[in-house]
Amino acid sequence: MKHPNGKGSNDRRKFPRVAVVSDIVEPIVLRYAQDKNSKSEFIPKHLQAQPAVLMNLSAGGMQLITFLAPPHAKIFKMTLTIPGLDRVPVQGRVVRVSKKGETYVVGIEFTKIAMKYQKRITQMAHDDVDCNTRLSLGLPEACVPDCSFHALCTKPQKAPHWPRKG
User: Fold this and answer.
1) Phi, psi at residue 97, to the nearest 5°?
2) Radius of gyration (Cα) for the chain, nearest Å?
3) Total domain count for the chain?
4) 58 located within any domain
5) Residue 124 lies in a domain
6) 0.85 cut: is pTM over it?
7) Is residue 56 over pLDDT 60?
């Protein structure tokens, strides 16, 4: 059975995901912003900025691991910097939190992100899927020069010479 997004009924995601955690982790800092219109929403100073580990990323949101429970904030603002994406301003909201031992898995939906960054993230996800397909088919040149996922890639088959500059 197909979902309206064209994928199987088990995958209802609107955007393809970039799996960031495989052999690496990408540390980031979340900065939660107070809703200036809500007097009831107070975020303690020690919770306003938290270290986190990015697990996956899509044009519509991200999943990460935090070491403190996220505050009950309606919105948050952050600047996302990972290999391949530098200083991307993002606004989002927490849509899911589950406690795993001493950590929290947090799902965040983007409420504001520039279209050019959405396109870049989507292209990175597609390039990673294409690479995995080439690897599964046993093609000799799995790594291609125009791969936008190259900076995050940790596959042993990764060609060190891509992308070429100049």
Assistant:
1) -140, 130
2) 18
3) 1
4) yes
5) no
6) no
7) yes
